[in-house]
Amino acid sequence: MKTKNKKSIFADREIMTEAERELLSRDISRVAEQYFELEGRAHLDITRSENGFSVCILMDARRIKKLWRPQN
What we know:
Layout: H1 18-32, E1 36-38, E2 43-49, E3 52-58, E4 61-64
Antiparallel strand pairs: 1-4, 2-3
């Protein structure tokens, strides 16, 4: 059976909706909380760049958490 070249399911866009930004912020904060004691959620700055997008993620943290190595 022949398969045609299909375009990406998601079309290229220039902006993220507020709901998408909120979801991304929550996801990033959840991961960052493993390493930092955060004050609030991550702030996103997404701008168009020459090669696509520049994504800057800013977070306020009170401290860096001590990480424990897994026991073997």
